[in-house]
Amino acid sequence: MDPNLLLSRNLLLMENRPIVSVVRTLFLTVTLFGxxxxxxxxxxxxxxxxxxxxxxxxxAILSLSRTALKSLSDCEAQKQGKSTIFYxxxx
Length: 91
What we know:
Layout: H1 3-14, H2 18-36, H3 39-79
């Protein structure tokens, strides 16, 4: 299935939600703000935005690492022909 089709369908479903208007307004405001100030300020604000995203990703990776390792060991067992069904309760 075409990813652009899925994106278009999802955007049409979200069109009437108030959050879409808020995000559009915020995007336009930030764009206008960026055109009126120096590049160093824009980079500083970008760094401030990237920092929290990085911490959230680190927290997510650490919280999902146990499940990912279980999935990896189950996948390796399936490659050896032991089982073809994923059991999330395996140790």
